[in-house]
Amino acid sequence: MNESGLPGGQFTKLQNLTIRQSNLTRVEWLPHPERLIHLELSNNTQLRDVAWHIFNRTTQLDVLILANNTLSRMAKLSDDSSLANLSGLSTLDLSGNEWDCVWDFQFVLKLHERGALVNGDHLMCKDTKSQQGSWIEWNYSIVKRETNKKTVNAECLSRTKCCDCKFTSEGKEGRVSYTVQVDCSYKQLTSLPAQLPSFTNELDVTGNNLTSLDQVIRYRNQPLKILIADDNQIVSIRNLSNSDFIRNFSRFSLKNNYISPYEIPLEDIVQVPTEFQIKYIYLYNNSWECDCNMATKVRVRYQQWIQLFYICVPFPFDIEILLMMSGFFKNLFKDWLWKYRNIVNDSSILLCSRDGKKIPVLHLLPNLVCEGSRLNDTAALAEQEEHDIFLLHAIIYVEVAAICVLALKLAYDFWHYFRHGSLPWIATKLL
């Protein structure tokens, strides 16, 4: 016997080797591997590693049983000779181990398709890389995972041609799901791929020559969650309004393009289908001009109105609901950028140009950029808004006063009933 606990060189004609329930921890040598036909290493609970290069010379191996050990590492694709020998097996059993999903199991899928894989339904792997820091342990069917990966690889080649696709698996909402990241960055593309591989949730088209993202509307296989389109020549995303992507994206990056604020579907972007959904959009360096429209339509003093309201009215009213219900105050919603700065993740560094200078958009004021009649129009608009907010306060005070009167009247009626035993006049008429 050698240091590994395997039989030594005296078995020169050994063809069948079975080791069960032993204390083996690692196998890195086989006696006369060129003669082996049947090899079984099973139920060895301390066996954690097999040096896959030992199969480089197992040219006659027909049956390989490595079941119910604690193996986690699979052969690398670079081990061509060992994989070639293993691909010719008539029987393979790898079940009952602790395989890591990071390894490539495509040769296992080929044996499964050929009917040589035993216990394929019980062959599982763990995605230890994506589960770091998680207390939930997800197990994935290797056969199903490799089947999906094979499909994605074929679709990636046929649908995206020059792009790279990364297949990953993850546990989500109590079930196993698969995701694909498609990287088409710096490929000199002038249009988006007509189709994407199945399970695609992220598309990176940074550094191309794109002028439009309209193709996103036609992606039907799975809603895209992340789209990175930095460093292109895009001028508008208005056609994405009401699309599945605009409603459901989690990250949308459009840095270093040519999109004006008026070509962005502002209200559609901030719609959140579920309470817990998080959305981020990035708009840095889109060559914005500090004009009067920018100052009056993107940067109106929304926050100042909110602060004024809560100073004047110390009651638990929802100002935004009241503003939405009132037709007088629709202009107060023009301050989209300030209101939704938690969604526009780079709002604090968004700049616009005026006279060769860069001005933060959030600090842009009408009196800096509006001239002549436009400034007068802006002043008139501000005056109208002040009048509107005064009316709003008046309405609120009247409603509060009415509620107080009703509350006092109700308290008096209760007191009168318990003191004198008589109902209020209106109650006697109703009864």
From TrEMBL:
It is a single-pass membrane protein. The keyword Ion transport applies. One of its GO terms (biological process) is monoatomic ion transmembrane transport. It comes from the Eukaryota. GO terms for cellular component: plasma membrane. It is found in: Cell membrane. The chain crosses the membrane at residues 308-329, 390-412. SUPFAM superfamilies: L domain-like. The keyword Ion transport applies. Keywords: Cell membrane, Disulfide bond, Ion channel, Ion transport, Membrane, Signal, Transmembrane, Transmembrane helix, Transport. This is LRRCT domain-containing protein.
